[in-house]
């Protein structure tokens, strides 16, 4: 029986939690963050908090006065203890608009749900076998002011994930409306070409990933050249390496894109640096 926190109240996840008219359920009216926990510490917490508050402002979600940065952090760690998780864990916060109304809400106040679950002890360990990667061709992500946040409208990622499963890939690339590379189903994407690291710019519509931000800084500290730019599908085919990043898995390297086999030299170097920074 897993315990969760709903609007400050601890309860079983099996109990009735939200009304049928919850706006996140009806309209996708909300945001979420997924946060890694390592040995009772939240290594990227500030980055998550900054993205959460920026996203809430963009959605005109009024965060409750008591929902402070310290409350959020303490509640996550409390849930880890209450659920008897001794190792690494992942927390998910869903921030949704309270009240009823249809497209016009009758209030702007936000409610929240916080959940935790255990993770493998091998946090941020680079995958031994390279991932297989393809392109999702059916829908395109529109770059706008919301596209950099993790909103509760995740249909394009769900449909892309179904498509990759049907094709027996490990992941697939989502394109933007300009037919440039945007991201993968749950990760930001990097490629390496002639010793230069390139990742889609935020203006291309990708999520402003916490691990993306950290890896860019990590690479620059290693004197590696990093560019944020538009990336065409053709450039992806010409890459020497492709790797994916997110806050839970760290860095994962792609072994095959289509029929092309790829290296993992830079991904291995950055993954080792990531573990040295975080795994203490």
**Residue runs with pLDDT of under 50 for 5 or more positions:** none
Query: H/E element string?
Result: EEHEHHEEEHEEEEHEHEEEH
Specify Rg, calculated over alpha carbons.
Answer: 19 Å
| End-to-end distance | 31 Å
Mean pLDDT, to the nearest integer, reads 95
What structural category do the secondary elements indicate?
A: alpha+beta
The tally of helices reads 7
How many E strands? 14
Helical percent range? 25-40%
* Rough outline: globular
Biggest sheet statistics: 9 strands, mixed
What percentage of the residues does DSSP assign to strands (E)? Answer: 25-35%
Provide an overview of this structure.
With 280 residues, the protein is an alpha+beta fold. 27% of the residues lie in helices and 31% in strands. The strands form two sheets. Strands 6, 7, 8, 9, 10, 11, 12, 13 and 14 form a nine-stranded mixed β-sheet that branches. Strands 2-1-5-4-3 form a five-stranded antiparallel β-sheet, with helices on one face. It is globular and about 50 Å long.
What order do the helices and strands come in, and which of them pair?
Layout: E1 3-6, E2 9-12, H1 23-27, E3 30-37, H2 45-58, H3 69-82, E4 89-97, E5 110-118, E6 131-141, H4 155-166, E7 171-176, E8 181-184, E9 188-193, E10 196-200, H5 210-221, E11 225-229, H6 233-237, E12 241-246, E13 250-257, E14 260-261, H7 265-278
Parallel strand pairs: 6-7, 6-13, 10-11
Antiparallel strand pairs: 1-2, 1-5, 3-4, 4-5, 7-8, 9-10, 9-12, 12-13, 13-14
């Amino acid at each position: 029986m897993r315990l969760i926190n709903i609007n400050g109240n601890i309860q079983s996840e099996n109990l009735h939690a939200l009304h049928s008219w919850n706006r996140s359920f009806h309209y996708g009216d909300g945001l979420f963050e997924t946060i890694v926990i390592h040995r009772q510490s939240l290594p990227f917490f500030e980055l998550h908090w900054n993205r959460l508050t920026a996203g809430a402002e963009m959605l005109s979600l009024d965060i409750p006065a008591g929902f402070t940065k310290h409350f959020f952090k303490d509640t996550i760690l409390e849930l880890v203890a209450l659920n008897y998780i001794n190792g690494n864990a992942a927390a998910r916060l869903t921030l949704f608009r309270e009240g009823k109304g249809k497209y016009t809400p009758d209030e702007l106040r936000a409610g929240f749900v916080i959940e935790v679950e255990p993770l493998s002890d091998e946090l941020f360990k680079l995958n031994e076998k390279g991932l297989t990667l393809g392109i999702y061709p059916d829908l395109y992500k529109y770059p706008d002011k919301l596209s950099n946040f993790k909103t509760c409208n995740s249909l394009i990622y769900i449909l892309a994930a179904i498509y990759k499963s049907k094709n027996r890939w490990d992941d697939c690339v989502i394109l933007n409306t300009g037919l440039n590379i945007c991201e993968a189903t749950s990760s930001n994407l990097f490629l390496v070409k002639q010793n230069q690291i390139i990742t889609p710019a935020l203006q291309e519509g990708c999520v402003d990933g916490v691990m993306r931000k950290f890896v860019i800084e990590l690479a620059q500290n290693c004197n590696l050249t990093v560019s944020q730019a538009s990336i065409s599908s053709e450039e992806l085919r010409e890459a020497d390496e492709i790797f994916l990043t997110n806050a839970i898995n760290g860095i994962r390297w792609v072994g095959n894109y289509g029929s092309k086999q790829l290296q993992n030299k830079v991904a291995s170097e950055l993954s080792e640096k990531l573990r040295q920074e975080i795994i203490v």
